[in-house]
Amino acid sequence: MTDYFVGVDSGTQGTKALVVDGESGRVLGSAFRAMGLIEGLPPGHREQHPSSWVDALIEAIREAVKVSGIEPTKIRGLGVSAQQHGFVPLDEDGDVIRPAKLWNDTSTADECRLLTDALGGEKKVIELIGNTIPPGFTAGKILWLKRHEPENFERLRTVLLPHDYLNFWLTGRCTMEYGDASGTALMDVRRRRWSEEVAEAIDPTLIEKLPCIHPSDEPAGYLRSEAAERLGLRDVLVSAGGGDNMMGAIGTGNTRPGIVTVSLGTSGTVYAYSDRPVVDPRGEVAAFCDSTNAWLPLACTMNVTVATDLVGRLFGYGHEELEEAVAGSHPGAGGLLLLPYLGGERTPNVPEGTGVLYGVSAENLTAPNMARSAMEGATLGLNYGFNRLRELGVNPSEVRLTGGAARNTAWRRIAADVFDVEVVRIRVEEGAAYGAAIQALWTHRRHLGERTNISQLTDRLVELDEESRTKPDPERAKLYNRLQRLQDRLSLDLRGTFAATSRPPTTPR
Fold this sequence. Notes:
- The protein is an alpha/beta fold.
- Among the domains are: 85-160 and 176-210, Nucleotidyltransferase, domain 5 (2-Layer Sandwich); 305-390 and 477-499, Nucleotidyltransferase, domain 5 (2-Layer Sandwich), CATH 3.30.420.
- It is 39% helix and 19% strand.
- The strands form seven sheets. Strands 1, 2, 3, 5, 13, 14 and 15 form a seven-stranded mixed sheet that branches.
- Helix 1 packs across helix 6 (162-171) and helix 12 packs across helix 13 (367-391).
- It is globular and about 70 Å long.
């Protein structure tokens, strides 16, 4: 008898649910529920009500199961992926104290600087936990609560991340696994345990409010009765789940050395499996753990389809017209080079950066060249992080592309030549939700006593779109290597300019 598994991805913009056949890996049903941010907040504040995640999860799962046409009693496991780094504060009764501050909330920049200084500076922080403390991570949000809402901090009894909160609603248990915990800036990623030094620097009582961290193949628990009733399910094992990047790694089959996943979305990520901690002494690559009990070094950029969408709006292009325009320009875009720091940048770290179009002439300032320069500039921006992964010992043999832009033939061609590695699309585009379903299958089998390796499951279930496979062209790869060096040099030269023109004169540097 075939068993079925549900994978959920709760993101900033909405929640996706998939029903997956545990034998074939086929997606039998899917559903999506949109969500929005809380409106009217000050600049830099990004928040959502955790209750909206629960409502969207219930609706998406019920619809996906209905679409699949299967008997709900045959669903054996459920896995949850969610946006990383968010802070969900619970009181002593397990109730949410205030809305969750999200990964893209930058209001905690001062707290991150204070915390870093209190711990002895960035180098010391990397020695302690393997990562820096950027505003996106959870640690600064907790200190923000203490400094700005002390009455709410006094009520704080449990710190959860978004996917942990959904697991808590599903099972009634507060748990946290290695992968998502590594994105809090509270965890020593080398030893996979909480850093008492960082917790103490925030508040002496904080360590007591952090859940125990457990391995990623241990289940979060079974559906509690109320959750089962509202979902129309029963006797379902809930896996540990994880952050969206960790689940995306599973969903793209990135569970053994040699594979690199590149996500081409509004923002972009480059990450790889590692069987050892990969700590960047410069702090540019995040030293994450993954959600398979290994590690996931990751570089993140904020500007990918942000750049191409901007050009598309400028010239009235849809996706097809944009691709045609790029195809009408030659590699190198006639000498135009875009530094795509349109809203600042995370890797390289240029938070005050703006976009720069370099090399403009009367001859090359055309719509096709601008379209190509946006696509090339965003890919070169990702390649900055890719090259840093290489410097830290990651040796890629294949790049697996995910995200909406991976459907773009011109972009796949550019990616292969810029990365100088063969690239291929994944057939199931909802990588995080699909990865959550596979993790649920893995957990179910191990719970039954099978010694299943997750890479065995991903090698069998994750299907590649072989028609999309694109090999790098040696001559174009050389051209993009030269452009990469130019972009990197311009980036370094301009960072002081960005800082000087973007910050008030009285702000310490």
